[in-house]
Amino acid sequence: MTENGRNREDQLEHNLERLLTSAAPPLGMPEPVKKRVLTALTDTGGVVTPLRDRRRRWVVAAAAAAAVALIGLWPGSPSGGISWADVVDRISEVTTLRAILDAEKPGPGGERRRFRSAIYEKDPGLYRSETLAGDGGLELVTVFRRGEEGAEVLVLFPKQERAVRTLHVIRGDGDSRLPDLGRVADAWRHLGDIASSDAYRIGERVLESRRAVGFEIPAEEFFDDRYPAVLDGVVRLWADGETAHPVRLEVDFVDLDGRRTQAELTDIEWGVELSDTLFELTAPEGWQTEETRREVVTYREVRLGRGVHLRLAPEDGPVLFTEEDVLAVRSLEAFESLTVDSPPSVVLTLALRLDAAERVEAFRSENPGSLLVVDFNAEIRVVPSFESAALIRFDLSRLGKALAGIEDGYLDTGDRDIGPARDESD
């Protein structure tokens, strides 16, 4: 099937879905044609009737057939416009990408921080970002080479002539999470999985002397499980009205803690030549370099060990959940410096039952300034962090145990063979 054929077939399916579920003609259809469609779908009482009721379908079948004839191949946009299917086809062709990212997000103290970065992507699995300082110089450079279940990452601090190189190793039988450094690069591939029904056409505008067509996507659909902390927001993609290549991406969302993030990707260039030297994982000669290692063990069906107790509560407040409310152990994560003699940090991530997650979310919403503390097995008390309402993380380093010791002493892995650590960075 030709590209145009695939696009028309996709748009036909989308238009029929709108017709059969909500009796709505396609977006952008001229008013005279739209009125003819609505007339064909109007019952004897003059009310447009969605075709959900099986008993009524035979009554409006003939009218629906007439409406389908009118809208079946309607492109979903004004004459000469593009559809979401066209945009997805263009995204699937991308192998290299260069763009500028402008973002504003909350800092550690709640203050608003703005930054600008140059983004480079080259398949397979190469990514580089260069964050600019206020004086126009480089403030931070991040390079990573990604494998299927791991990555090697280099972070450069040019003003301090300092570098940190980290080997990320993933093992276990649960869902692997790669280093949280390539969200923009991953986003393009994720766009292709978004259905036409979730991408709403929002009109046209002129961008850099080009006519651009806009599509709006709910933030939760865009980020999916890659960023479960997203509470609400929108993502807007603007595509060239002639080629359907995305020319701008706008993100605006609020997370579970009420923090707002806004970002805009512009100056997008497709299929450009990118030298392999951009993605080298070596620091400049003479720089201070720290070598680190991050090991993550992921689990699919592992729980806290029998006799292990857990409490989450505010200081002098009610207990919000106990070990009985833990659905499963999701991961153990160890981070250590191979250069500096210091104990590794070990972080445990737990998934909570729905009712417990709802209690925690309600309490945090009603008491935004309250400090929550985890009492882990009456051995340590730590302040947790939340990836989402149902995922809680806290540091077990004060137990003085390595990752394997925590697995053996506090988790019920049954007869599961988690296997040795694997280097998946190649």
Which descriptors apply to this entry?
426 residues, alpha+beta, 3 domains, 17-stranded mixed sheet, four-stranded antiparallel sheet, 8 helices
Quick structural summary:
With about 425 residues, this protein is of the alpha+beta class. About 20% of the residues lie in helices and about 40% in strands.
Description:
The chain is an alpha+beta fold. The protein folds into 3 domains: 3-76, no CATH class; 88-276, outer membrane lipoprotein receptor (LolB), chain A, CATH 2.50.20.20; 293-412, Gyrase A, domain 2 (2-Layer Sandwich). It has helices at 3-22, 31-40, 54-71, 84-91, 183-191, 219-223, 354-366, 403-410; strands at 96-106, 112-122, 126-132, 138-146, 150-157, 162-172, 200-207, 210-218, 230-240, 246-255, 260-270, 288-304, 310-314, 321-322, 326-337, 345-352, 372-376, 380-382, 385-388, 391-395, 411-412. The strands form 2 sheets. The chain has a 17-stranded mixed β-sheet that branches. Strands 14-13-17-18 form a 4-stranded antiparallel β-sheet. Helix 2 packs antiparallel against helix 3 (54-71).
